[in-house]
Structure formats: structure tokens, C-alpha cells
């Protein structure tokens, strides 16, 4: 345990992936969580950094809401979500006294906490760090990109739903990525159609086609469409491991494909 | 405050405490911290401007993607169906301005006149303002930090020439941050009727919405009520599967626990999303849909709630 010196707490992190969208409610936290679970199932050690300060969703998704965060010499110890300690998580959710307490902060204070989250969490050795963000192109995004820049993140997964209203915001997010020099690993289209498990009828609840079209327009890879699956939704509500529990789900192939793409792009281990 | 330096920039200036002439001034620390700054004069200016606006409603959620903009747009459509009702729709989602698209006004530009900015009129009695109208391309990103976003919101409230308005609907981004604080702060003296809070039935949404309700309490913003959106989708073919399940009781239980009114539940109709994408009113597209009926009932309840409150003017400070 060396004294706190450069490059600090991210020294042991092999690859950093940001999950972004311009739009709220498209499934950033869902995709971040499912990606982490899928990478874990591929034998990797994963950290999740939740920088959505106003709406920290991930603790509940991994059934660790209410856990306390401890300090060590190098900073905050992230919360481990499993016995094997293969997934660790840091979120403002752990720092709130009451779960319903609102974090009503203006930009500068949010920036300060995000910088701390980047530099003062003792992640240890990680294969992948997945950074979940709130919607928008503002303080949190600029703060996290600036703070992570010295560590050369792998890039960003940009999430949209098929609707034009969503694509309209996500186009701006892609511009943000270009402006701040953040590589786009690819676009994920979430909530892409609902296949009723009883009768196989496919209903395009949130329209269709937008994600692929957006990727083409922006000249970035399209990583796949994740359909709406009530089992996935329920798993997240109840903090269950979807990847483990539902390999037959229609959402599983798409999520595995995204994880595989990350594993191929940025392999860790013997190769 | 003795020994004020010669070139004191003024205690309420942006340079207060920071200018070269501030070095050594005994009040430098006080000024730099902003504590000496007088209240923003814009608050009074906005209060004056808002004298011609009878009712002001903020549409909030803690959570993104629950349908705030969809709801705001349809609240505006619904209220404006009575051509004698003047409606204004203000979109303060600076990073993700959806309202122009949903209202079918993409590509419109804002014009300046002697009396300020003119809103874009969809109908004679329905005016709209959004940062979306100030952007030249749909790919333009608004990458602003908090203070600059606040400045834009101040301008929207102070410099837009709304005219005589019965209802001003303010659509907000998700969260509890700069935009929300600014809207409440700038409208503080002008009396906001209250907030309509949107959620979906899921716990992941309710969890954020409880925070939003707490935010409203903190800033003394009255809550008109909660709308549960995307409530109860069933497979149109076999009626069996559900999607956004209320695993923890949905908005109904939350409202009961937190003692706030539940204004209604809007079912998920795939045509709603399509209408928004096309920039058309869902009411026109599907007048008999259960979703339309739900919206109309909720709008009526909001109107009733507004008419029970003092119609502005009096010293009813909103915060």
C-alpha cells in the first residue's frame, strides 16, 4: 500500500467506459448495470461509478441501497455488491442520510463531488469501470470527462430509444462527445419493441428505427437494439441478477453482444 | 463598510471580491463569497412581467423520460382548446429541449421586438418558447454549466413578451438542480400556483420522484398533484403482459404515504409516442383513447386546483 501519489486511485483500472445519453429515461443506468453484470459473468472485475447526483438509481438495481461507505487510507471504499467482490459501486445514493433526501445542488457543488468520486474512491484493481451519467450535456458531464481525461477512457456508449424525440436529444450528446474529444464506442437502441411473451405479438411502443438511423447519420457504430422485456424491468426493480436469471430473455442476446463488443475492443487478461 | 477601494466594482457586481482593486480590501472575503450581493434585480422585473400571467404551473419529475414534456405539451393543447384561454408553454430544459419537436414547431425561429422576444405561436392562443428555437442545427449541443443555464432561464422569464396569459406551463428537465432552483427563485415573487409531478409506476421512478416532492417542500413550492404516466400497458393482442409494473404500489401508494394528491393515471398508448414524434396533438390523433380521457380528466383537475388559489397579485409570496 503505497502512499497516495499519482496516478492515484484509478491506477489499477484497465478500461473506463462512460454511458451517456442526451435524453432522460432511456435506460442508461439499466444498460450500465446489465453491462457490468455481463462483464462479471465473463470473469472480469468491474466497478460502477454512478455520477447521477440527483437521481442515483444503481444502488437499488443491485440491491445495495442503504449500505454505508467506509473510508480507508486512499479514500472511500466502494460498496461491493456480491460476495466475490467482483462488482463494486460508488454512488451519491450511499452518502444520503435518508433515501428520499433530495440533492439540491447547483453546478459547482456537483462538480466538486464528481471530482472527488473520480479521484478519491479506492477502486483497487479493476478490469472495467463503467461510469453512469445523468441525462444532459452540462456540469456533471463536463466534470466527469475532464476528471477522467488523464486516464484515457475507452469511450462512450450512447443510449437512445427508437423515438424521434429521443434521437433529437441524443444527436446533441454525440456533438458533445465530439467537442470534448470523447470517442463513441457505439449507439445502443433501448426499449426497442416489446415482444409479448404470451402471444409473440411485437408492439413498437416507442416507435422504431431511430437508433440505427442516428448511428448512421453520426458515423458511429450501431451496437444493437435491446427490446423491452418485463422480466428485465422487474429484475431491476427487485435488484436481481438478470444476466444470470434470464438467459432466454429476448433482451439477453443484445446485452451480451454489447458486452462482447467491449471485451473484443479492450481485452483484459492473456492476449 | 469603511476603506472601500477606489475602483470598487460594487458589492453586487460579478467582480465583487475578485477584481484587482479588491486585493487588500477588508470586505474582499465577504464579497467574493457572494454574501454581500443584493437580491437579483431580475426577480422584481420578472414579478412585474408576470403580472399579466394568471396561473403558473411547473411540470417536474425527479426522473427522466417519464413524460414531462409529453404531458406539458398536452396540457397546453388541452387548455388551448378553449380559444378564449391564453396559454403559454415555456421549455426550460436547456440541454434537451424536446418541446419544439413535440409541438410540431421544429425549425421555427424567435423574433425580437421592442417589447422583448416573441414566443412562437402554434395557435393564436398558444405561444411556445424553448432554447430549441435559438439553435441553428438539430445537432447543436448546448454544453453549458449551471450559471449560464440560469442566465438563459432568467432571460426567458424576464424578456419574453408573453402578453396576457391565463396559464403559463413551465416544462423542466429531470433532476433537482440549477434549472429548478432558478425557476423557483426567479418566480419567487410572482406566485407559482404549484407543481405537477410526473412519474411512472416503477419504483426506479418513484424513488426519484420522492426526492422531487422533498425538493418542493424544501423550496416551499405547492404541489398540485402527481400524474402516473405509462400506467398499465397491456399487450393489445392478448391483453396478458404488463410492462411498467407498480412493484411497490405505484404512484397511488406513494401519494397516500406522502399525502399529495394523485391527479390521475395515463395508460401507455403507443400512439402517444408517435404523435409526439410527428409533432401533433395526441388528442386529435386518438380522441377516444383511454389515454386521452385520462389526460382530459387530469387537466380539468388542474384547472380546478388553479381556480381555488389566489389569482396572483396579492402578497402571496411563492416561496
Structure, explained:
The complex is a heterodimer of chains A (271) and B (319). Chain A has 271 residues and is α/β, with parallel strands linked by helices. Chain A is 35% helix and 22% strand. Chain A has helices spanning 28-41, 58-61, 107-119, 139-148, 164-179, 210-218, 230-238, 242-245, 251-265, and strands spanning 13-20, 46-50, 70-72, 75-77, 79-80, 87-91, 126-132, 155-160, 184-195, 202-203, 222-228. In chain A, the strands form 2 sheets. In chain A, strands 1, 2, 5, 6, 7, 8, 9, 10 and 11 form a 9-stranded mixed sheet that branches. Chain A has a two-stranded antiparallel sheet with strand order 3-4. In chain A, 56% of the residues are buried. Chain B has helices at residues 28-32, 41-49, 68-80, 99-102, 146-159, 178-186, 203-218, 250-258, 270-278, 282-285, 290-308; strands at 53-60, 87-91, 111-113, 116-118, 120-123, 126-130, 165-171, 194-199, 223-228, 262-265. The two termini of chain B are 31 Å apart. In chain B, α5 runs parallel beside α6 and α7 runs parallel beside α8 (250-258). In chain B, the strands form 2 sheets. In chain B, strands 5-6-2-7-1-8-9-10 form an 8-stranded mixed sheet, sandwiched between helices. Chain B has a two-stranded antiparallel ribbon with strand order 3-4. Chain B has 11 helices and 10 strands. In chain B, α8 links the parallel β9 and β10. Residues 312-319 of chain B have low confidence and may be disordered. Chain B has 319 residues and is α/β, with parallel strands linked by helices. At the A-B interface, α3, α4, α5 and α7 of A face α5, α6, α7 and α9 of B.
Strand content of chain A: 15-25%
SSE order of chain B, one letter for each helix or strand: HHEHEHEEEEHEHEHEHEHHH
Helix content of chain B: 25-40%
Q: Main sheet of chain B?
A: 8 strands, mixed
| N-to-C SSE string of chain A, H for helix and E for strand | EHEHEEEEHEHEHEEHEHHH
Q: What gross morphology of chain B would you assign?
A: globular
Span between termini of chain A: 28 Å
Unreliable segments of 5+ consecutive residues of chain A: 1-5
Structural class of chain B: alpha/beta
Number of helices of chain B: 11
Q: What class, by secondary structure content of chain A? A: alpha/beta
Q: Give the end-to-end Cα distance of chain B, rounded to a whole number of Å.
A: 31 Å
- The oligomeric state is heterodimer
Major protein interface: A-B, 63 and 63 residues
Helical percentage of chain A: 25-40%
Given the structure, what is the number of helices of chain A?
A: 9
